[in-house]
Amino acid sequence: xxxxxxxxxxxxxFALVVVVLLQKSEGGALGIGGGTMGGLVSARGSGNLLTKxxxxxxxxxxxxxxxxxxxxxxxxxxxxRSIVDNPVEKTAPAKPxxxxxxxxx
Length: 105
Fold this sequence. Notes:
Elements: H1 2-22, H2 43-73
Helix pairs in contact: 1-2
């Protein structure tokens, strides 16, 4: 379940990037889809279509993000613990276990 939802989330992220890049830029030369769409729709219609598509994909992306966060929090192993909750145990350094070097007498 989580794997399928994660794949859908990744496809939505890619689609969101593509749809945002296709929109016409208002102030600079950043937009890729600045021209007409080959007579498919008018310039105004393509703007509205891309705007609606961006909103729908963004809403789906946010919802999958929330669902994945909820699923990640439900591990079933009790309350979440932090490494700060455990006290630090101080131990003496380990003695070397390798071969020893004889000292000169």
